[in-house]
Amino acid sequence: MSLLEIVILLPLLAAIAIASGAQARITAVTASVINLAIVIWLALGFGAASRDADGYAYVFKRIMLDNPSIGFGVGADGVAMVMALLTVLVTFAAIWQIVDKPASYYTASLLISAGALGAFLSTDLFFLYAFHELALIPTFLMIGLYGHGDAAHRRAVAWKTTIYLGAGSLVLLAGLAWLVLEYSGGGRLTFDLMALRAQAASAPLDAAKQAPIFFILLVGFGTLVSLFPFHSWAAPAYATAPTPIAMLHSGVLKKFGLFGLIRIALPLLPAGATTPWVQQALIWMLVGNILVMGFVTLNQNRLDDLLANSSVMHMGYLFLGIAAGTQVALNGTVLLMFAHGISIALLFALCGRMRNQLGTLEFSKLGGLASHAPFIAVIFAFGAFASIGLPGLANFAGELMIFIGCFQFADPLKHAVLDAGGFGPLQWAAVAGLWGVVISAVYMLRAWRKIFQGSATSGLFMSDPLRGQRLPLLVLTIVLLVCGCFPGILLGLLKAAFGAAKVAAL
Amino acid sequence: MSSPPPILNIVLFLPFLVAVVILCMRRLLKGASVILSVASSITCFICSLMLLGTVERVYPMMDFIHIDGVFDAGILAIVDKQSAGMLFIVTFIGMLVHLFSLGYMKDDEAQPRYFGALSLFMFSMTGIVLAANLFMMFIFWELVGLSSFLLIGHWFHKSSAAEAANKAFLTNRIGDFGFMIGILMLFGVSGSVSFEDLKSSLESGNLHAIAAAHPTFMTIAALGLFMGAVGKSAQMPLHVWLPDAMEGPTPVSALIHAATMVAAGVYMLVRVSFIIAASPLACDIVAGVGGVTALMAALMATQQNDIKRVLAYSTLSQLGYMVMAVGLVAMNPTHAGNADSIGHPGMFHLYTHAFFKALLFLGSGAVIYACHHEQDIWKMGGLRKYMPVTFWTFAIGTAALMGVPGLSGFVSKEGILDVAYGECKWLFTIGVVTAGLTAFYMTRLVVVAFLGKARSEGAKHASEVPLIMLVPLAALAIMSIISAVPSVANGLNALKPVVEHGHEGHTVMIFSLIALVVGAGGGFLLYRNRDSDPVSIKLFANKFYIDEFYAGLIKYGQDRVAWVVNALERIFADGLVARLPAAIVSKMGSQLRVLQCGRLQAYTFLLGAGVLFVIYILVFVLPAPGH
Q1: Quick one: residue A456, left, alpha or beta (phi over 0 = left, psi -120 to 50 = alpha)?
Q2: B313 Cα to chain A: minimum distance (Å)
Q3: Domain span holding position A414
Q4: Closest to A441 (Cβ–Cβ): which among B67, B170, B626?
Q5: Cα R_g (chain A), whole angstroms
Q6: Is residue A436 one of the residues assigned to a domain?
Q7: Within a domain: residue A396?
Q8: pLDDT digits (tens, 9 = 90+) for A130-179
Q9: Residue A288 and residue A284: Cα distance in Å, rounded?
Q10: Closest CA to B416 of B438, B394, B398, B395
Q11: Based on the structure, what is the number of domains in chain A?
Q12: In terms of pTM, does the model score above 0.80?
């Protein structure tokens, strides 16, 4: 049994144990801490670990079915390693939260964690897909059962999320099925990612066929990541979901769609990704994420709505990295996936605490909390400034690399965009993204100002958490700071994760 | 490449270390955090002295983003005359402000937070000065914005301070938007944004070819960089944050919003002046924006009643001078400042201005401290008797700012007017008018606040400030007098600009002396022994209504648009993408009772099938675009 299998199974077993009556908090916290330790240990040894031809380390496979060939395979390349780190960190922070219904909360959190880890670490498309579905189910249930707001509201939100993500998953399944059918030669279906990759490298599909498959995968994965215009499930879901679920889903599980695009769609369908109409569609959609959702976020009057919408908006930057597609941009995308996950989980954790203590998150009723809760104020500032891309915090390096990727010209002197008078669509999208950075700063600073500065008008009061409850917040903050000052740590894991630099087509 | 000398590491990272230590342990440290911060500022000052006159080179300090063979954006420190000289200004004034703050912030309960933020500022500013490439400059550029945000909002329970801090940060962000576009464009073409590489690329590489073939591209890139400077150096139309930034503690205004951070824009422009010079249109725009800012800000300053706001508008106006100088010098490739930043008139004015403006701000801080936080000059008066040292140092600073011959300001202002005279007559006229206005409003300030009789109880009971606050004033007063003396300036790496006096040698000097006499004389006669302002020009007092215009723009251009977009998003994204298919599916479902509608799986399946069908139509039935 390989360590990666243990990492996936441990939260699953812990969840089963809790469901069958084990002491909830101790079991859950122990499992999350052990998982954190194992993954950090694996990440430390990742550089020296032996890799296979595709750059995967810790590879291990159990054959389940011969034809169609399905096996429970695990393995981690740089991207998966970074995502696994993100998962265990956020799981640790989410599980550390004190909750009122321990058994169901911890079971759900552990199941989501197991599903996410399984999805990130599987090297078999079948299990990759199945693990993600496994993680979605507790998300729906927890929103419906223990979400915020009255019963009708949370049921409606759970319903909407289910339908949306269910539909997205089906589209995704169709795309994956098509992909597998096209690449499985010799009358033998295979779901093995490595085999598919080898096939794609030796006998790539016709570009005209790649484009529609890529587009379907983009819509399918995109819906899971709240790509505009398939995003309207996300904001209500996060605003309604119980805090640990909001942290895990927005921080970790949502990244599955991007992970899929980077790990499956881009390497298997490189020509599809650069087909002009696909790329143009992607650029329009991601600009929608950034600008439309940016303005929508500006219009929010409650902290939870604001964070939820901002999380949708920031997905636009990740898609921008995928649209640019260069080595620098993709490295930046993974960096930003990690950083966004940490920062949004941190902000949702604080948001949940505020909701519990204050009873409201409406800006008009809050103010001056920095004097009561200086610790919360400082941590919130770290999260907020990270999410608006301040240098020194983790998100900046990723964003910068994505923008740089948009401006890498193969041969600058002959490049068409110069003759066109300056910018092509990709560069314009980057400009929109840069303006989105200004918009983010506007709403985040507005929120910070309304909640923490000025004077408390309504007499609402909040206290700093006790020492024990500060630990997860501190851990996430330190991760933001360390990865912000030394992005090389994560870039080291990503070394050789992406092949030779592709240069943007637009 | 070799490892950097230890003093370079100290001067850059020590303040950061101190800031982090204070952030983490301010409860434990208490008063010790103040000592730590002050000690680090003194250490940095000593290090910067040691860096003067060392070998010019670039040292790698730290890796930041590095992908083997593809991309590298590191933290590299450039040590040359410009950076070492600027570092001296930053650390010298920084040290004095730390000392002054010991007195000024004595009773503040959040003293550790204040000094921590001050150390963070020193770190960020040093980073800008030492930056050897534009990415590094951008990183520290943003960090300077952050520390300025923290310090302006130091008294965050005051709404006005919190608003001012946000305004400063956001206005700077708008400037940074352009800055980043400029950086990315240059990177896209030349593949590197270190100053050395850019320079060689412009001489004989990609940039050279682009500048010849696509002048618009070059102009946009240069203006992008300039936009960053417009934000940071508070030029029109992004100047609105600087006067509001006066909500911060006064020593902060002296350090950040007079001498160093706002000068960073000019510093950066001088660094990249060769790029601006590559686009004649950009040169004109830079010089024009600088000139307009200089004039408009001086007009606004004449009608302000808050002592710090008068100085703030004066700072805007002087920054306008410097920016104008950058544009003017870039217009003509024969100027000395173009080939090398040494002797750049803008940089030289930055250098002299830093001392006398910091002196004026610290002096105003002493006045505010003595008058129990009274800032209205009409409630002061007669302070000369009660605070003689403050008065005399303030008078020296005023004289230097007005350009009284013999003081540093006269020499550096002359340098700028000389270039303007040679390049562009209408900017020269603006420069002379501004000089006259400067003399006018500074005379008004001194006459109203220090002369005559005390007009409030606070002013009557004012007394001289403690020694720890007087020492910085004295040191800065001395620098205001001697900083333009050639031997001092040479020693501090700030070379006097070389101006070829080919054209009518003394015309410029005569004009500026007339402006000085008219302005100062007019101010003195008009304001002597007055109890209220005899002049009232609404347009100037209300700052040309620019703030009101922006408030409207934010309300209608941003918040209302956000409201509309939000509504549209609900209707279209939610309605068309989600509810319509759902409605269709459920309608189908009600007719297809066999599918046992009402169960989650069935809905999910049907919806998925519906979406698939739509995609099938889109992809296979309709002709695909691009084929």
Answers
A1: beta
A2: 25
A3: 274-506
A4: B170
A5: 22
A6: yes
A7: yes
A8: 888 888 888 888 888 888 888 888 888 888 888 888 888 888 888 888 88
A9: 6
A10: B438
A11: 1
A12: yes
